[in-house]
Each structure stands twice: as structure tokens, then as C-alpha cells.
Amino acid sequence: MAASTLGFALLGLLARQPRTGYELSQALRRPIGYFWTASHSQVYPELARLDAAGYISHTVIDGPGPRDTKRYAITAAGRRVLADWAGTPATPAPDRDEFLLKVYSLWLVEPARARTLIVERLARHEAQLTHYEQLERDMRGEHGASLSDPTTPQFSSYATLRRGLSFERHARDWCAWLADELR
Amino acid sequence: MAASTLGFALLGLLARQPRTGYELSQALRRPIGYFWTASHSQVYPELARLDAAGYISHTVIDGPGPRDTKRYAITAAGRRVLADWAGTPATPAPDRDEFLLKVYSLWLVEPARARTLIVERLARHEAQLTHYEQLERDMRGEHGASLSDPTTPQFSSYATLRRGLSFERHARDWCAWLADELR
DNA sequence: TAGCACATGTAACTCGTTACATGATTTG
DNA sequence: CAAATCATGTAACGAGTTACATGTGCTA
């Protein structure tokens, strides 16, 4: 009866504004893609399920290609289950981090080469941090006041962005420490 | 031919010392479980595959129950593929964080209730941090010198522990910020 | 005119979880 | 003597990825 996690990702997007399946697939790369992703082949069947459950509705609009283009909107029931789910503690999901798993066996790698790997990783965190910092400036420019009002979608978006900023800084600093140890 | 990620997790453990399938399953909860987990039903078939590929070998030892107990050890070939894999950049895996996905829809939740969720989360990070700090003291006590030698398994373990410490501090601080915003 | 963005769907496969199944030894 | 721990395996299922499949409109 309740939606899957992917379903809640889609409902979270549709609670902000109506979108087509294609647009939802795109959004699952950015901004939600920072913490949840899905390919379009997963999105379309899930939309059909949410529709059948009455959590979303669609209107057919004309578009290109051999099939109808549908624009989806969240229903009152959908908003209700989404709010319920968001207000419930997250089930502790197992962390899987291939990079850390490699670090666990990094003692088998020649130190100079290991250092290169870590420095490359550091650069990626640095780049992502720069990207997030730009997003933060954009957000502050567009929505100044609503960022401190916890009942606006902007507040939630800003909170996740702050998490991203914090995470990248920690990851960068740890890479810098490790690169130094491998010197 | 090459092993799966789970295979490399198992090889990473066996590169340190021989173990039975049962012991490997336990180790995939802690310490490796901090960044990679698997259930025993996944471990046993994977061990059979690694064995068939010649990356590990086993000796039958006597134990309880209707089946043989096997103790596995890594082979030279296994150590080679593990070192190769560890020395190669990690494939950027999609981040999936159900908790952040909930924060994305937290604007639909009554702020006082939302704050409770975040404070509970903060407590979990605090507890994990305390746990890691204890592990760090233990590690420093047992292996003082080898922690700065990048060719020892202790160095790798210590590096992942430092990552855990850094991560928990960042997560705790972000929760504290968000809880304050929801006040 | 070739490629890309738009737009939607299905099929085959891999990875991981939960449940099923068996049976000895130790501890409360 | 009941429950937990040791110890190993299989089966059914769900979630997610990659590849297959179709067709339009715009741009270099």
C-alpha cells in the first residue's frame, strides 16, 4: 500500500510542482540526485503504481513520439502519505562505500600510487564543494527570507544543500590528512 | 573473472588473516560493516566463486553441524587482484540516503515534530562518535608505531576509522544546526 | 543529415534481503 | 531444557542497472 523509497522521492518532487515522467527522471539526477537517483526505466513503472494507488494523478498533454506525454500532480492522499513518511525515523540503511573499502586494502598499494588516488579524490570533493557554494549563493539570492521558514520547500532544499557543503568539507579535509600521511 | 565488490570486501579481510565463512559474515558487521555489509546468505556463494577462481583456498576443519567447516586463506593470485583493485579509482556509486530524502520533504512535517526527528538523529551520531573515539584509543594503545606506516593493515584500518570520526562530527554538527533552525 | 533532446515504455540481468532448512555445542 | 551461538547452505523476492525499442523536432 505504502510507496517504495523511490516513490517517496517522486512524491517529494511532485509536492513542489507537477512534472512529466521525463522531467522527474531528469530531477533524479539533480537536485535530488545528490542523495537519490533512479533511471527512467525505474521511474515509469513506479509512476504507474503511484497513480494506481491514488497518490498522484495525470493529465495527457500532447508531445512528440509514439506515446502520450503525461503530466503528473500529487493528490491530497499522496501529500498525506509523504508527510507521514517524512515525519518517521529513517530505517538505518547499510552504508556501502566502495572507496572506503579500497582504503581498507590500501596498505597493499605502493604508497606513491596510493597518494595519487587520494589526491584525485580530494580534487573531486573540492570541485563538488565549489559547485555547492555556487548553489548556495544562487539560493540566497533567489529566496532570502523563506530559507529560514521550515514550512517552505526552499527551507528543506537549503537544509540538504547545507548537508552537502558540510559533507564535502569533511571529506576534503580527511583526504588532505591521508594524502599527507602517504607523503 | 574479476571479483565483485563483495568479493573484494572478503579478500580485504582474508589478506589480514584466514577466517571461516561464519567469521567473515561476522566481520562484515564490524569493523568492515561500517562501510560494507552482507548477510551470510550472500557470503557463502561468493566464497565458492572466489575459491573456483583461485583467489582463495580452504582447508576443512572439524566443527559442529551437518556440514563441513572451512577455513579460507587468500592466495597469491587473490592478493594480486585485490592490490590491483585497491589501486584503481572507485567507480562513482550513486549516493542513496533515505534520511536526506526525508529532509527534502521535511517542510510538510510540523516543525516541533521535525525537530524531534533531527535531535534523535543527532544523538545517534553522538553515540557513534563516542564509539569511534573509544576504538581510536584502543588502536593507539595496541599499535602505536604501525599506524603511521602505510604498508601495514593497521594503517588502512586507522585511515577508515579517521574517516568515520570525521563523518560523525560533520553529521552531528549539521544536525545541531538544523535542530536550531527548527526551534 | 547526423546527432541530440524530448518522451515513454519493456526485458534481462545483478545485487542484496528475508525466509527456509539443518544440526551441534554451550550457557542460563 | 530452552535459548543463544556456532556453522553452512538454498529459495523466493525486490530493487536497480543496462540494453532493447520507438518515434518526433531541433540544431550544427
H-E order of chain A: HEHHEEHHHH
Largest sheet of chain A: 3 strands, antiparallel
CA-based shape of chain A: elongated
Name the quaternary structure: homodimer
Strand line-up of the largest beta sheet of chain A: 1-3-2
What are the low-pLDDT stretches of chain A, counting only 5+ consecutive residues below 50? Answer: none
The beta-strand count of chain A equals 3
Radius of gyration of chain A: 20 Å
User: How much of the sequence of chain A is in beta strands?
Assistant: 5-15%
What structural category do the secondary elements of chain A indicate? mainly alpha
The proportion of residues forming helix of chain A, as a percent range, comes to 55-70%
List key phrases describing it.
homodimer; 183 residues; mainly alpha; three-stranded antiparallel beta sheet; 7 helices; 3 strands; 60% helix; DNA-binding
Summarize this, please?
With about 180 residues, chain A is mainly alpha-helical.
Topology:
Two copies of one chain form a homodimer.
Chain A: H1 5-14, E1 19-20, H2 21-27, H3 40-53, E2 56-61, E3 69-74, H4 76-86, H5 98-104, H6 111-142, H7 153-181
Antiparallel strand pairs in A: 1-3, 2-3
Helix pairs in contact in A: 2-3, 6-7
Chain A binds a DNA duplex (28 and 28 nucleotides) through residues 4-6, 20-22, 25, 37-42, 44-45, 63-70, 94.
